[in-house]
Write a sequence for this structure.
């Protein structure tokens, strides 16, 4: 079996070489050759294997496919060649032309490994990697760290795969999952504890170590299981009395904790002083800077969070688990459409829609890279969004960007007309059918005027199965300056 090299030619794989060697009777007769000849053949075989390994490694590094989102709302897809302090270099997926994109023009990116790169536009996955650990720590500023909690005599630590032992401070924690797959919802007025038996209790967490010191809120009588968990004595004797005062709970009984919501402190404006937020292969989401890529060393960046960089001051080049799969460099200027929740839905005049209240669906933002969850609509309908005031800054431009996709399965004669209106702009019309199943959208308006987004989906005339569309990577971008 042969593999495709970066230049489009084919090269033998290691299995091919081994098969050829096995079929070569000269290897069988090597024992009867002079020692020098046999040694030369062995050395030649080793060189061939080494060259194959090197070619495979070089090919693997260069098969990184990225989508880069620019300030104008357009995504450029290509084979990544380099990232340095000034620019990104990509081999365009459509025409193979090498393109240089200045760093200052890039809002965000999504990356993945691809086993095959063709002249067609490559697909880049939008689902965030599943964390490689059952334990999850989320900080109050939104960073996400798979790992394990460890209580030591000198303090508590969160052990992370490629960062190392991170000193743990509850003041910086929003959520912590110790086991299982669930986390409790955060409250404004209290901390929440999820027990291993599935019960929850609200109160105030005083400390965390080998045990959890917890003071429950005054509330209605707990269930028997919850009372057992909160029992001072740690016995299994049922009780229905309202617990009062602080409780010491063995940590093995705690599945997760959610601390009360607090506003993260920001220093120096809306954006980090440098760098951006990076989604990594192992499911981590961290703040980083000095992001670089080349075909020999691959990805690398530096952590910018003081606590994390103290645990790992070195660049991440030495650990593939830290390789980025996505990143955003101006988080305050990127607003995912999915974050606005469900839109106001209405049915166009002269159209009919059964059960229209369920005609929209929003994917999980937690599982979507950059928070760009997919938004789905089943027409005919009109979906209207009101943009938050934070996006309507005077003297700036708002860009709506997405990719319209014909939802599958779709009838062979599917034909859906979509009209998109942003603020004071003219309606723009798009048609999805068997020939054009994906269409990019980039619409801009003065930020002060872009108060409303309206998406109108027509009736294709062939049943509801032919009127379903998805909006992929749908977002608003706010950029400085006014331009049409």
């Amino acid at each position: 079996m042969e593999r495709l090299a970066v230049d489009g030619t084919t090269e033998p794989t290691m299995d091919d070489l081994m098969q050829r060697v096995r079929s070569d009777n000269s290897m069988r007769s090597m024992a009867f050759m002079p020692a020098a000849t046999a040694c030369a053949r062995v050395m030649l075989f080793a060189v061939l294997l080494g060259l194959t390994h090197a070619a495979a490694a070089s090919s693997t590094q260069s098969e990184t496919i990225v989508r880069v989102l620019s300030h104008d709302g357009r995504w450029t897809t290509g084979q990544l060649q380099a990232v340095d302090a000034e620019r990104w270099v990509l081999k365009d997926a459509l025409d193979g032309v090498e393109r240089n994109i200045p760093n200052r023009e890039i809002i965000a990116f999504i990356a993945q490994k691809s086993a095959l790169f063709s002249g067609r536009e490559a697909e880049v996955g939008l689902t965030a990697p599943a964390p490689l650990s059952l334990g999850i720590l989320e900080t109050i500023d939104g960073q996400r760290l798979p790992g394990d909690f460890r209580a030591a005599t000198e303090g508590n630590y969160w052990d992370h795969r490629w960062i190392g032992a991170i000193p743990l401070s509850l003041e910086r924690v929003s959520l912590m999952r110790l086991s299982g797959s669930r986390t409790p919802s955060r409250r404004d007025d209290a901390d929440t504890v999820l027990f291993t038996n599935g019960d929850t209790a609200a109160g105030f967490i005083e400390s965390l170590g080998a045990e959890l010191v917890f003071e429950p809120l005054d509330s209605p009588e707990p269930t028997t299981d919850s009372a057992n968990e909160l029992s001072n004595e740690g016995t299994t004797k049922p009780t229905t009395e309202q617990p009062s005062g602080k409780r010491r709970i063995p940590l093995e009984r705690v599945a997760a904790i959610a601390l009360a919501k607090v506003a993260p402190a920001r220093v120096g404006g809306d954006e980090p002083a440098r760098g951006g937020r990076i989604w990594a292969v192992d499911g981590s989401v961290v703040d980083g800077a000095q992001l670089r890529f080349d075909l020999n060393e691959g990805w690398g960046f530096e952590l910018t969070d003081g606590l994390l960089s103290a645990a790992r001051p070195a660049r991440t080049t030495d650990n593939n688990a830290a390789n980025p799969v996505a990143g955003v460099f101006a988080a305050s200027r990127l607003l995912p459409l999915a974050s606005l929740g469900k839109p106001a839905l209405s049915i166009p005049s002269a159209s009919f829609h059964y059960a229209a209240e369920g005609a929209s669906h929003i994917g999980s933002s937690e599982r979507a890279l950059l928070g760009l969850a997919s938004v789905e609509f089943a027409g005919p309908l009109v979906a209207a969004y009101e943009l938050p005031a934070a996006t309507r800054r005077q003297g700036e431009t708002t860009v709506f960007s997405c990719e319209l996709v014909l939802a599958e399965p779709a009838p062979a004669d599917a034909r859906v007309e979509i009209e998109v209106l942003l603020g004071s702009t003219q309606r723009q019309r798009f048609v999805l059918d068997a020939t054009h199943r994906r269409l990019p959208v980039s619409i801009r308006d003065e930020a002060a005027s872009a108060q409303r987004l309206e998406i109108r989906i027509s009736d294709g005339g062939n049943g509801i199965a032919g009127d379903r569309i998805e909006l992929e990577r749908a977002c608003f971008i706010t950029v400085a300056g006014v331009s049409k």
Observations:
- The domain at 333-480 is CATH 2.60.120.1060 (Jelly Rolls).
- The chain is about 10% helix and 40% strand.
